[in-house]
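Hi F.,

I've been meaning to write this up properly since the lab meeting, where we talked about keeping a consistent format for the predictions we share between groups. The idea is simple: the sequence comes first, exactly as it goes in, then the structure tokens exactly as they come out, then a line or two of notes. No screenshots and no reformatting. I'm using this chain as the first example so we have something concrete to point to.
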Amino acid sequence: MDSLNINQKAIAWLNSAKGVSNGKIGKILEYFGGSTLDLWENFEKEKSRLKLGDEIISSLSMARDGFEEMFLKRMNREKVRAVTLFDEDYPHKLKETAGAPFILYYKGKLDEINNISIAVVGSRKATGYGKWASEKFTGELSQLGVNIVSGLAYGIDAVAHKTALKCGALTFGVIACGIDVVYPRANEGLYREIEEKGAVITEYTFGMQPMPNNFHDRNRIISGLSDGVLVVEAQERSGTLITAGHAADQGREIFAVPGNIDSLYSKGTNALIRDGAKITTCIDDIIEEIVELKEKLAQNKKTKDFSSLSDDEMKIITCLSSGEKSLYELSVQTGLDIPLMLGILTFLEMKCFVCQMTGNRFRLS
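Output, unedited:
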């Protein structure tokens, strides 16, 4: 970045002071009538009336001179960008939520973050079943062109990010620490990959360590960036359920994968279903609740040109137009031998007419 606009400069300055939370930023801005310019120019004159405490006032006063130059130097060295709630390129869905962060720092690109996005979250100590379900649903959503949002943690989050990357989808990792802090350290390689194919995002300034309360606040960003939240596995008391709680408060769709009633890691998801979350056993359970996704798929089907396809290829397309089918079901309904059909399906996949799901099942792209 060559320079900071007044919104970025004023809010990053407030955000960099120890003890100035997102809520305090809101109150300070309110005092100055919501004007970042007024805040920046008149802080020294008004600081005694702000009731912030001597330590915070002193910290802000000391940091003000030369702040922009110092901060820009750090941002450019770390290849970090910043966007504020007042900027046009701030993520639209998040901007509409109560308590949205006044500033986001990110590595990567936010160009397509306003597209259809689903958060995939779950236990850090994921079971084999949880990892399988996370990969299944993330893979199928990725093939539909959906952005994947998660928290760059161990377990379900890591599986979701890795699957999205493998499928060529955009993925956004929201972290509970400074943008220059990699946590957990074992996910550093994943962090770097996400920078290249999406973005790593945080509301915390440089150097902020992952304090326990940060994860609670981080979760409102994960849900706020998304059209819906898919909970794959969760214990009865877990941070994953906090994300679901934020999603409910924000009016987002909540999806939950059912699990073994005797499993510690399914107690949370099963409780969500009991309390009204959408039980999710296949991708269609998500599609039918996300209006924009449903409309996008319907439009894609209308605009595809099938004129170059053979009779056998069109048999498969027609069969799949009524919904996802297994290889066996396709064979029975089209009358085509499985070996022949496998070759045709491979061609249709290459041409992006059809996509293969887990378990040798197929659907229209």
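Notes:
The first strand starts at residue 81 and ends at 84.
The chain has a mean pLDDT of 92.

If this format works for you, I'll send the rest the same way.

G.
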